[in-house]
Every structure is written in structure tokens, then in C-alpha cells.
Amino acid sequence: MAYDDVFTHIGSCGPYQRRVYLLQTLPVVFGAIQSALTVFILFSPQHRCSIPSLVNDTFAVQNAAHESVINQTILMKEDDSNEDESKYSECYMYNHVTTLLQSETNDSGFEISNLEYNALNKSSQIVECSEWVYDSTDFESTFVTQSNLVCSRKLHRTHATMSYFGGFALGSLLLGMISDAFGRKIGLLLSLFIHIASNVPLGFVQDYHVFAILRFFSGFSSAGMVQTSFVMDMELVGPQSRMIAGCSFQTFWGVGTIMLAGLAFLFRDWKHLNLAVSVPTVLFISYIWILPESSRWLFVKQRHSDAFRILRKAAKVNKRILPPKFVMVQNQEASSSLTVIFKSPRLVIRTLILCLNWLIVAMEFSGLSLNAGNLSGDVFLNFLLTSLAEVVGFCLCMALLNKVGRKPVYVGSLLIGGISLILTIFTTLYIPEESQWITIALSLFGKMGAAAAFCTAFLYSSEFFPTVIRNSAVGICSFFARIGGMLSPYVADLGYIVEGQFGKILPMAVLGISSFVVGLLTLYLPETLGKKLPETIEHTINYDR
Description:
Structural class: mainly alpha
Number of domains: 3
GO molecular function: transmembrane transporter activity
Distance between the termini: 33 Å
InterPro entries: MFS_dom (IPR020846), MFS_sugar_transport-like (IPR005828), MFS_trans_sf (IPR036259), Sugar_transporter_CS (IPR005829)
Number of strands: 7
Radius of gyration: 27 Å
CATH class of the largest domain: Mainly Alpha
CATH topology of the largest domain: Growth Hormone, Chain: A
Order of helices and strands: HHHEHEEEEEEHHHHHHHHHHHHHHHHH
Protein name: Major facilitator superfamily (MFS) profile domain-containing protein
Membrane topology: Multi-pass membrane protein
Mean pLDDT: 85
CATH architecture of the largest domain: Up-down Bundle
Subcellular location: Membrane
Largest sheet: 3 strands, antiparallel
CATH superfamily of the largest domain: MFS general substrate transporter like domains
Helix content: 55-70%
Strand content: 5-15%
């Protein structure tokens, strides 16, 4: 019998599978945390130039004397959120010649220096800041404030975020190959060890380049954890349980981001936050002894005795009976080159649409999480709501996929998400600051749509492509998703990079329009619900005929 037939004997998703599923999927929680951690450890608070010769200068105004010195020294500029008001420049100040007369300590313990300014007029030379003071309302310290990744160095912040997603892309490829060659358990354990080695020391880093390198390896290991865990989960349960197992897998990602919101609220220093989310992963070392290998992988590698030992244990825990003797037959599927896609213009177009889908969905999914730190209001609440919207999107996807079909869920999630994000352009520009909750609500609908589309993408692609090229074709789609992930930090930070009202609407505009366009293109794809998996390229070409 074929391997999938064994589930009729041991059960499709019994107590054994549920127990192992939980063990295999727990690392995904920490992969999700690392993916979104940059929202907090690379958070860029309000800031301005530090005033030379002013002892104990702070961003917060301490008293009237302090405010007077700030007003005479710091350049003013138009406030992007309110054109009728001005605010202190983040990057420029007047180059006044100052003489320190005396230092006094006020009642609050703040030491203020009385400065005599020469040439106090608007014709004074304007210079760039060399040091900054930061608003500490939300965070005591972030890597941005520690390393001054602002003004002329503000792109360094985005590059550091991109390094994580670059590592994620490479890890998806290399650790996936290791998992296929040496075992799922080996691949997962290696990913966990790299994860621990790259994340625990991060909080002690002072140098920007070392920080970026460690974040690269954090992304590299997270990819292995997420990808290998997903494969192990799909191999663990029977065919009829895989859709639920796959969608449930996504909710663990949402649980991780929800946990991160709470931890970031508790730990306001980026070093403490990093330790809080990375040290617990040391416990995964116990997986060396408690996590079983994938019995399906063992079977494919002709290690039948090891596979049967695990299957017998599963049957025992599930209170089922595994026949003492039976022969499993490994299906030998003929493979073809991806070039067979070019046999049909229709198939080429649909493949390109799917690749673009994966790129945009991944960019939107990650970009909206990263952009949560740029929305008006409380950063912790915004991120928590974004994470909850993500889980709701996964749950809706799980509830609707088998009822209304893959295509309606796919198209609907992209269009609804895209329209919601496009509407934020108008709410950002024309609604007053006190009503910006409408913008946040619309962005949550966008995140919900992105989550549902992300959940649908893998299932739809695996059902669309024929057996002869399925693994390779889905791998190509996944590669485009990695590109989307690498682009997401730059899209999310457009409002940070481009100043003014135009910059504020850019992230949502790019993500919303992209989602809407690919949603319309997805209408050209066929429905796959209730259809037999295509075996040949001809079956896929004639899918909806």
C-alpha cells in the first residue's frame, strides 16, 4: 500500500499526532517573534539635535529655561501631521557660538547650563546634528537610539531589517536541502542551534555591522525552523487533516506576534527584550531527545525499520492497531523540467500571476507588520491589533476554503485588503488626527486580507501545478515570496524615508494598489476545490475546460 494508506490504521490526527504537532510547531512561535522583532528593537522614536555644552539635555522639555535654549538652537520645520503647526527638526540646528557661563541644578535635579549666544538670528549657519536626544516615552533604548541610526544614517535601519529577510531567503533554500538530505529532525535542530547562537548574543552588540550579520543569521535560522516545521506537520497527519493542520500552523505565527506585543510592552529596553524572546529558545535543545524523526522521510530514505518503530508507537498512543506485516510501495513519480510550462501561453500567464501573487502577498503580509510601528497612536496597541487581525484572517481562511472555494477566498482577500489600504490614503490626508483610528481600522482589514491570502497561496499553488513539476513550481513561487519579504522593509519605511504628507501615504498606497491589481489578475486563475490533483502538464493546461 502507499504511505498515506497507513493513516487508515494509525489514525489521521490522533493524540500522538496532536502531541508531536505541538512540539514541531512551537519553534514557529519564536520564528514569528524574530520576524517582527525589528518593529521594536529598531523603533525610531522622536528625536532632535543634542544641544552642545548643555549638560543632561533631554528630548522632553524640563523647564522654561530649557525650552528657551532649545528654541534658540534647534531649527523648526512644518509638522507633517498638522500643517498649521511646527516642530523641532530632527537633523539640523543653528551653529551658534556659545559660551558656558554657569551651571545650575533646578529643583527636579535637572542640570541646566545658562548659555550666552552670539549672533542669535536666523542667518546663523545651519549644520547637521552630530549627537541626538530621543523621546523615551515608549522605549528606554532601541538599537536606533544606541547607534544613532537617524537622519543621514536612517537607511541603515531599513538595511538591517532587510538583512533578516535576506537570511530568510537563503535559509529557505539551504536548510531545506539539508532537511531533505539528512532528515527533518537534523534540519530543525540545526536551525534551532543557529537561532540560539545568533539571537542570544545580539543584545550585547554595539557595532552596526555585527548587528546586521547576526540578524541575517537569525533570518536564516528562522526560515529553517518555519519551513521544516511545516513540512514535518504535513508529513505527520493524514490527507484529510492537512488543510486544517496547515491553516492551524499559520495561527501559531499569529500567536508569536501577539506574544511579542506583550513582551515589548513589558521590556522597554531593546537588550532586555531581545533576551526575553531569545533565551527561552535554549529549551529547544531538549528536542534532541524528545522529538521523533518524520516517519515519511524515513520511509522515502528506505529506513523502513525506523519508520515502522515510530508508526507502531503512534498506533499505540492512538489506541489503534497497526498490522504486523504489510508492504508499503513508494510511488515513483516521473519528473519534468519547468520548461514544460512554456508549452502553453495560458499556463505561462497563470504561472506568472501566481509568482507575482506570492511576491505581493509576502510583501504585504510582512510590510503591514513592520508598518505597525509607523501608525499614529500607541505602537504596542497597534501591533497587538495587527497581530489579532492576522489570526482572524487565518481563521476565516480555514473556515471558508472548503465551503466557498479557493479562488473566491484568494481573490476576495486580495481585493478587500487592497481596497482597505487604498482608502487609508484619503483618511490619512483628510481626516483629523483625533479620528486616525479609522486609518488604523482600515489597515487591520488590510492585514486580515493579507493573512487570508498568505494562508491560501501555498494550498492553491500545490493544487494547481501538476505532479511532474509541483515541487519545483511551488519552490519558484516561494522564491518570489522571499523577494517580497526582502522588499517589505523598504516599502514599510517609505514614510520614514520620504518626508511630508506624500511619504505618510506611500506605504499603504504601494501595498494597497499592488494587492488590488494582483487580486484582479487572480480572477484569471481556475478554481481547484473538488478537482483531482493534476498529474500531467496537459491536465493543468485544461484545468477549467
